[in-house]
């Protein structure tokens, strides 16, 4: 029985010690999400100002008039591909495309992490004060119980809000990345030759 009491006390101390770090991390993540929201809307404005991509995009790439139809990140890759135009070695082209694709997908990792840890931290921040609140209820301290419940539910709201916002931004940006990769592969086929394009597709 003494071992059981020691274990219960030890687990309670661990859970209680996690509450302050959880609140701190949630606060930092909320500030980060506000900053990221500004970055997201900047990217959205940049893309909304681009000319609508249609069947003339291949012609624009060949003539060098693609700057107003592609975002800056893709424009830099297309310019790098133009410098390789006429080369019969597909390795630099493949390496350039794979590096760019890796960077694009890697840029979405913070959002993927936020989708999971936001609600998870919110749940932890809910359960810890619920335990102390139930203890206060057993002692008849309703004032402490109400305070613990308020903190518990607000951490849930913050955590879920972070997860929902991260999922929304991730969904939109994933579509942007897929479109950018498609345009980069199109530029590689047009600017470096059909042979390179087939080899890139098969790699």
Describe the structure.
Residues 98-185 form the MotA/TolQ/ExbB proton channel domain. The chain crosses the membrane at residues 12-45, 113-137, 149-170. It holds the Pfam family MotA_ExbB. With 203 residues, the chain is mostly helical. The chain has one domain. The chain is built from 7 helices and no strands. Helix 4 runs antiparallel to helix 6.
Question: Structural class, from helix and strand content?
Answer: mainly alpha
What is the rounded distance between the termini?
A: 64 Å
- List the helices and strands in order: HHHHHHH
Mean pLDDT, to the nearest integer, reads 82
InterPro entries: ExbB/TolQ_transport (IPR050790), MotA_ExbB_proton_chnl (IPR002898)
Family: Belongs to the exbB/tolQ family.
Pfam family, one: MotA_ExbB
Keywords: Cell membrane, Membrane, Protein transport, Transmembrane, Transmembrane helix, Transport
